[in-house]
Amino acid sequence: xxxxDHEGYNHDCVTLLPAVQLAYNTSQHCTTGKSxxxxxxxxxxxxxxxxxxxxxxTIHPTAKDFHDMGKSSxxxxxxxxxxxxxxxxxxxxxxxxxxxFKEGDQVLGT
Length: 110
Prior knowledge:
Helices cover 50% and strands 5% of the residues.
């Protein structure tokens, strides 16, 4: 399955899964307040691109295009994750009902 993104790149969706996984695993989740990588491993992964100097004079055009495509994919995925979180929050709040307990009811406490 292929699609063309807003910048005109053709993609096989499967090739974008690592970028989506990275964006998901390094974004802060509202339940824990931390990213899944921090919860599971104690740290967020650092990519080689994070160590590149920002003031390099020449970068190979293909490498720059790949970097820009990856950054664009991560940014877009982060936006979609934020929208999904808000949607799920609204759906939960809409359907959540406070349980009603009466005196003498048996409940399991933690």
